[in-house]
Amino acid sequence: MLNLTAASRREVAPSASTACPGLFYGVSAQDGMLARIRIPGGMVNYHQCYLLAEIADRYGQGWLQITNRGNVQIRGIRGEISLDDLQRLQLGGLGAELVELDALRNIMASPTAGIDPQALMDTRTWVREIDHYLKSHRELDVLSPKFSIGLDGGEKVTIRDRHNDILLVARQSLLDQSRYLQVYVNHQDTQLCITPHQVLPVIKACTQVYRQYCQENPPQNQRPHRLRQVLADWGVDGYLQKVTAYLGFSLIAVDKLDLAPGEQDQHTNNYDHIGIHNQLQPEHVYIGLVLPLGKLTTKQIRGVTAIARLYGDETLRFTPWQNLIIPHIMRSQISEVLAKLEKLELDWHLENPWHSLIACSGTQGCASSHIDTQTQAENIAQTLPKLNYPLKIHISGCEKGCASQGVSDITLVGIAKDEYKIFIGKDSHQGKFGQELYTNLNTTEITHLLTQIIQTYQTHHHDQESLQKFLSCYGIEELRQLIGR
Which of 6, 242, 381, 461 shows its CA 20 to 30 Å from the CA of 308? Predict the structure, then answer.
């Protein structure tokens, strides 16, 4: 039975000061109300896609946005989504039956789970099992809606650099080729592993110990405790001791397994999924599409869903890099699919500058922002030199940096109305955004200067030298001289 009523909807709505966007309550933004629909593992079927498009047309502005966790947002909502439509979303698998648990369904997996030739494990079954567990245990409603779980099966399209409270990463032993999952807590390597059949029990133990802390330590304000607060009080070792006690068995020390280094210890490329790629399944490929700031019009989502029904397996995959994958395309039908994608104005080329740009909603959607990040991103996309290498440019309307996890190659930060700082680098030890390169830049200057930075790199870098490696070879003053400003 669905438990959705007007009363339950009011009960589950958080206060404005603590609100994390959800489905069953609206969160106010500058451009209207915002609804966020959790998509465990980023995997959707065609029924769900058509339903999302219908809801975006009926209540939003005719478009939807994929988030940096592979979820979906509908912005600019006027009024409330009706109880009937919310129940349709529940029945369609896009909302939890227990509305108070819906916001916990933050489960990230590689968007190429089950189709990646390099993968050690297929994580899709665990995504479904964990989702079922999270949305059916009412006692978990004390956990923070920001609590997140990640499952990396060793795919080339890895999510191991994405922040998750609990992250399990597939590894292989050199001793007997057995496969394990290494445990990370709050992005810290515990140096512990589990076997595949222990995944669900370990996730249950992690959440129940977290729940125990929340119940024994009621928050002083209305904000639910984050897992990092639990770790601050108990320490990672203390938390894991309680998890082990709950389980009744010990986790396996990494140093006993002689694990192969594998792809998980190498530099991560967030754009390995863009373009046409071989699948694990012979004669099939997947196509990764570039979406401008994660946005899809409802016409496009219906069109690409029709393509998936006709040429694929009737599913799509939303990525944590705000892009989209169409899996299971026959090689013999690639040209037909690409022609249809062109008609929808959807692109799959790595050279598309939009694949490099990440931006928050800016002044169009957020009261904290100093700058119109959306318009600035469009200006940059139109003027950016053609790129045939990975690059991440983050445009943040303020110093919160909500749109991006970690440090980008280049970050533009709004510090006052139409005023920016530029940061470079990926080393968070240098600061939240890296090293400050320039400050007090206006909107007109920023696009020109960004072009100069990239052109300087294109002119002076060595073969196979990334932008980050190139920039790290120079001090700040040397870079300024080289750039010519």
Answer: 381
